[in-house]
Automatic annotation (TrEMBL):
<dbReference type="Pfam" id="PF13409">
    <property type="entry name" value="GST_N_2"/>
</dbReference>
<dbReference type="InterPro" id="IPR010987">
    <property type="entry name" value="Glutathione-S-Trfase_C-like"/>
</dbReference>
<feature type="domain" description="GST C-terminal">
    <location>
        <begin position="87"/>
        <end position="214"/>
    </location>
</feature>
<dbReference type="InterPro" id="IPR004045">
    <property type="entry name" value="Glutathione_S-Trfase_N"/>
</dbReference>
<dbReference type="InterPro" id="IPR036282">
    <property type="entry name" value="Glutathione-S-Trfase_C_sf"/>
</dbReference>
<dbReference type="InterPro" id="IPR036249">
    <property type="entry name" value="Thioredoxin-like_sf"/>
</dbReference>
<protein>
    <submittedName>
        <fullName>Glutathione S-transferase</fullName>
    </submittedName>
</protein>
<dbReference type="Pfam" id="PF13410">
    <property type="entry name" value="GST_C_2"/>
</dbReference>
<feature type="domain" description="GST N-terminal">
    <location>
        <begin position="1"/>
        <end position="82"/>
    </location>
</feature>
<dbReference type="InterPro" id="IPR040079">
    <property type="entry name" value="Glutathione_S-Trfase"/>
</dbReference>
Amino acid sequence: MALKFYMTPGSCSTGIHILLETLELPFEAWIINIPAGDHLRPDYLKINPRGTIPTLVLDDGRALTDFRSIALWLAETYPRGRFLPQDPALAARAVELLDFALIQLHGEGYTRIFTSERYIPSSEARHGQGLKDDVASHGREIVSQAFELLERRMPAEGYVVGPHFSIADAALFYNEFWADRIGILLPPRVAAHYRLVRARPVVRQVLAEEGYRS
Ligand SMILES: N[C@@H](CCC(=O)N[C@@H](CS)C(=O)NCC(=O)O)C(=O)O
């Protein structure tokens, strides 16, 4: 049985899509249309009860149901991809940056921008759009501050840890891509990292497959 990859074009699953294509692994892509509610359908919830993407179902049927676990599984299962440095301190740094991208940028920041309604108690729902706008602008502040923090620890050039493209680069990339799409300014080193990753042929291929022109 081939790997089954559940993804939504232009979402965080793009980072995993890049890792899969970099490894040139055969996989079946299952498109989950979030706006249409595919992620909440009973057949998908059976695979990933949290109703989020990405999900990767392994060839023995076990499901990995978040970005971090999929990225670590790919890095450890396919060391030829060099997605984690061999030096333990650098590998730990890659995991730190991966988490920063997933938790701070995505979880704290973009989630407020893309799903502002989740931060408004139902008792306040009557204030509707105004409150949603406040939540979204708070999300933009969080994202900008997180990129500024990242900037201070970003190498002047190249990938974020060592000479090879890592799981941290994949996680940072989709957050940078979102910033580009919604007009959040990236600081210089982060912007240079975004350009570097975006110019990789495999990344151009993935973005084209997901419906974006480079
Ligand atoms: N912790 C999960 C979160 C992933 C996540 O939030 N994915 C978004 C798309 S980028 C999603 O599935 N949204 C649907 C929802 O939260 O209902 C992970 O890292 O994989």
